[in-house]
Amino acid sequence: MKHILFFGNSLTAGYGLPAAQAYPSLIQAKLKEEGFDYKVWNAGLSGDTTAGGVHRIERWLDQPMDIFVLALGANDGLRGIPARETSQNLQEIIDKVRYKYPEVKIVLSGMEIPDIVPGRYAAEFRKLFRELALKNNTLFIPFLLEGVVGNRHLNLPDGVHPNAEGQKLLAQHTWNVLKGILS
């Protein structure tokens, strides 16, 4: 059996939903349906930032992992944390995982913040994920929330967190990248 660790925030945790409706659980169901022998670990923690992730990754490094899905950064963007700092934190997480598991396949989930944010921040934030994916030769999901953000039918009443239907789109975006590296 192989293992996939989903390491993220409330989007990964499935905030406000039963665990079975969070996209890592939907990926687990899809893996089973397609006949892949994988165990999915959901290490989503609501409110987590990349800085929190740097410290939190330590306790997950004892879990075997063949694929590591890194889906942190949204809370950094919401808090206006400098893009350089977010990038350094994500790099540190990638480095720690690769040090422990040199053969691990890494999928980086890109995040974006609305262009209504003044200045260059939105563009810098979007770019940091693309640059990290290239630099680290990881697989890349350009924008995990593509098609979900701003669509009230796909979000909880808070307008921020995907509902069960929205989580299905997160799972689809992730599956589209994952399916090519499953063995």
Automatic annotation (TrEMBL):
InterPro entries: Ester_Hydrolysis_Enzymes (IPR051532), SGNH_hydro (IPR013830), SGNH_hydro_sf (IPR036514). Residues 6-169 form the SGNH hydrolase-type esterase domain. GO terms for molecular function: phosphatidylcholine lysophospholipase activity. It holds the Pfam family Lipase_GDSL_2. It comes from the Bacteria. Coiled coil: none annotated. This is Acyl-CoA thioesterase-1. It comes from Pontibacter ummariensis. The lineage of its organism: Bacteria, Pseudomonadati, Bacteroidota, Cytophagia, Cytophagales.
